């Protein structure tokens, strides 16, 4: 099975760590490759960034289709370009939000998300409503760190723990989701710290949830519905 | 008052008729100007088209901000780029969907939308959920004509009437909205035909609803909330 | 354009200030006149008051119809008599709640309302559900002043600011609505105080929202749907 | 126990049959008396009628309070004046809609209502939303007879059966509610006809549901919550 | 009228007090008898307990059908076995949750429930969603006492008062429901204590609500809908 | 990885085919074993059957815990015993409904389910509400065959195709779910027949969805939240 990971930002400095993380979650026999964008933004932290990155993402989707990949992970928690992508490729496509939240629904009553900056809260609330799962989202919190400031694991873990334990303690969350696909390699440690405090709740890593989601879809023979995701009519396009 | 109309497609052939239509709805004292996109698609009939047109729209928003306009109408019923735009300009910005549907809510119980092609139905359903008004949308129908095939008023009116009268007759609509900003100059005639059949229901023209909405916001001193539409953080952007 | 403002209380002492306020929001060319009730209550602060004022309001609607006015504003935030009125006049009719909240939905995610007394909270919650927008109402607060005790602008502004800034600070509101049409001439100053505290959120004045809403409907040729608001059957009525 | 039935229309011709019907449903030991209005309309078939009847109803509530009754049934399916009444009397008050629909929820999945005229559909939809039970209302149908034309039991039963059996057959109703308190003495026969057709579904008579609801509340010591139904502040009232 | 109370636990020590409590709420002429289970658990405080008690409950339902009882109360607030029971008996069947919450909806805006242990909160939230009334449940609190530890009325009342007064004070409840049918004989005293603090809100006893609900259904001739509660097909069953 | 499949019915005749089907969906390295119940019913087609089978299922869960399995699939589309099971085992547990529907949500707008008999429709509607996904379920249809009558693939496929193609054609479904885990080995052929008719929609097999769901949870280290699924308190239990 061949999964293409699209890192929807410009620059190649993060490609290696993103690919390694995706490979760590993948099943034996799954081939992962990873591309970033030619055109787009350095990170996605607003509707503005998301809009600017969309054409660059769709260019990568075009290539993925040509390459005959089996599934595509657009590695950003805001699911940028996901629905447009499904219109033009016969393979499952997910971002970070949808597989993580749907997975979480089977684990507990209220889902708590801890993301990066307050700027993205309206975007995530909009996604929750679009997917009609807003009544199960108990809280969306922030660590107040930009996407490009997540590399210090100690700071990140401390802030994640602070928000997650407060959310669970107040009854606002029964499952915690890491709300940014850039929060690499901290899910297990966060789960352990929460358990030490007496909060035995699952922690969902969005990259892991996305990779396994795609693998499941491929094994189940599932691709986007063509009555929902109709192929775009032919016309002039100059982008 | 200065309102900028952004026609979110490439090409300039439609600019004159769009500007004339907007001017026809505008109040005395409102100045309308109209621009199309440098980069984008010939029409918007899918999530794919919408995504491809977003950067071109945001470029025009940047110019609108620099020009100090009082309000912006992105003239497409799918509200492309609207939320991203609100993050970067201190003036009200609307597309076609939001002002037309909110206006309709004050006129009757169930709102019926008649749009162009089945391709855009999921997009409109998603907007309805995003705006949390989905329970009032009684039906979304199509005339099954592409955006660029709406110029024959007789065909368009016949199909609009067919769908709208069926929807009202079945109790699925109490107010009709023209679901494409390219359906110019047919609202009044459609209303008359419906009334002749005994269906005395209002018909909302999305261009008219958008222009008057913006004028009202400007007069009321209302601009996008900065706790919802936070300014995007500074970063590299290459689009 | 001729807009009739119905002040749905007995007594004429407030008529002048209400008319002046409405005129201040009206467009050039709009004629405003203003009437109060022969029968009703001194103010509306309960379902009881609202019910008692309804026949007096409908008598004024009858006159407005006879006078051929273009639109009617029943100037109370509880929308008293609005839906009954729409059954008997072919012109747009609004109260204070509906145009203010629908306008607010286009400006930010969560709407916060600051009204007069706790007595009216259930009435406003019921309206929000009737209009199916309850999921967007983040909070409804009170200044704990009766309608007839709003004339001291300093006290009113201080309490409005206290509630509004607390609501925005806690993430319960992105847009503030003045929840009583008797809170005249304080919207701009409240917005300024909030901005000084770092909360750059719009403040919607319900009188302004209602007047511009009616003007827009008149210009758009929109009147109440006769499949929702059917004319009442003929019968004996002794009121 | 003393229950006051308020027939919210002018005229006394129906008082006897309404009182007899209420007495037929009442428990031994319950005293029923019945009053109509001094001011109001001959029947209630619109928001307009409902608004005009409200002060006359509230005058009767005032008297009921003075008389120390234990519960009040305002015998109309539109629940006119019910919420205002609860603000001014320490006894349970219901109309026809609320007890019938809440009772029906415990009997089957989808509730089907068959009422009189299309004019009242928006009013009933609004009540369903106000009471937040709209998702369980599978259909609201009409017999297309005015309130004052229900006395021919054969015609009424035929039309009720036609609508109810169609609704059950199409899966839109598992429980049928008679949607007008003037549909006296037909519930049992309708249930029998439906059973003969193979539709073994309960039929709720709104008068019976209201009388037993009030009796239950009185026995349970339950009166309106004063945090929801606060007493109206003192003020001038001229109605 | 003959009502069978099923105490869905093993052991007979509580039978007398449960029967006396049910009889105290019953109308003159209602015969109450009371049985516990042969197989089941000592109390129900989890989905696990509820599942284990179901066959024992259904055995009692079979007997109730054979005995020709008029109604059945399964006296547990989690409504165990209620929906399965309705499939096999032509008489109304309720648990503690449904009649108490539906009754409460007619008394105030937000319903507050105070139950025993945090273990049952997800079960109650699930019931609220199943019955589609979750939007009216303002809060569900616990006294943090097990079902078999409720006999000390002073401790129970203190904890009920603490939670209920906090809920009302914070605007999370306008009506209080005792969230365990084992909280016998404390509703009136709790109501008094709340009133002394200035919170004039109704307190619903679930046993009283259930008994009067069944009596009303019997008098109204209402039994479970057979399009919702279809008789189970014949087959081998070995339980 | 070791997955235990619990076939929640009595009798062993189906065990082999169920195990083979589960193994066919499993990843290399996953060990599947399969048990049926000592106590229960021959099939599950009602709330009654579901309730009777619960203790037998929980006995198997106890054994699964003792055996240290990594995940449990209770192979029935009604999710019997699933939530009780999660309270007593530290491994992911699913039935057929939840993983199939959550998977379907990522593939198209409206989910259509085709199940066995009308008897189970209320049960499935209740599950949809419990999981808060009811707004995405466009239709639930039946093939009108009992669980033990599904072995004739031609009849089954014809009826599945009839219902599924009608649902897609009417716009009520964009994704089809086989609504019984006994509909073995027909998903692919149904998808092909729908595609031949021009309906290019995914068909979700609930067994496949469940097995891959469990495998994903195990790989992601996810087990039931202990703030939602609290361990049942110790007490006497005699089942």
From TrEMBL, chains A, B, C, D, E, F:
**EC class name:** isomerase
Task: Tell me if Isomerase is a UniProt keyword of this record.
Answer: yes
Q: InterPro entries given for it? A: Asp/Glu/hydantoin_racemase, Hydantoin_racemase-like, Iso_Racemase_Enz_sf
Record's keyword terms, sorted:
Isomerase
One MF term from GO for this chain? allantoin racemase activity
Give the EC number: 5.1.99.3
Q: Which family does it belong to?
A: Belongs to the HyuE racemase family.
Q: Which PANTHER family match?
A: PROTEIN DCG1 (PTHR28047)
Protein name (database record): Allantoin racemase
């Amino acid at each position: 099975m061949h999964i293409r990971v699209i890192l929807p930002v410009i620059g190649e400095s993060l490609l290696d760590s993103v690919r390694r993380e995706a490979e760590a979650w993948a099943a034996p026999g799954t081939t992962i490759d990873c591309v970033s964008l030619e055109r787009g933004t350095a990170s996605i932290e607003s509707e503005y960034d998301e809009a600017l990155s969309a054409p660059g993402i769709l260019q990568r989707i075009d290539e993925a289709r040509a390459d005959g990949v089996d599934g595509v992970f657009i590695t950003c928690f805001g699911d940028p370009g996901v629905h447009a992508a499904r219109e033009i490729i016969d393979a499952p496509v997910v971002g970070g939000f949808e597989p993580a939240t749907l997975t979480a629904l089977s684990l507990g009553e209220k889902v708590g998300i801890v993301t990066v900056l307050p700027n993205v809260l309206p975007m995530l609330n909009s996604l929750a409503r679009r997917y009609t799962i807003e009544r199960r989202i108990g809280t969306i919190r922030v660590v107040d760190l930009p996407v490009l400031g997540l590399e210090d694991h100690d700071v990140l873990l401390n802030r994640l723990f602070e928000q997650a334990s407060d959310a669970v303690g107040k009854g606002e969350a029964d499952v915690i989701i890491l709300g940014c696909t850039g929060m690499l390699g901290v899910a297990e440690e966060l789960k352990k710290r929460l358990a030490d405090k007496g909060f035995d709740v699952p922690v969902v890593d969005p990259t892991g949830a996305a990779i396994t989601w795609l693998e499941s879809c491929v094994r189940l023979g599932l691709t986007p519905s063509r009555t929902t995701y109709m192929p775009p009519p032919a016309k002039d396009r100059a982008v």
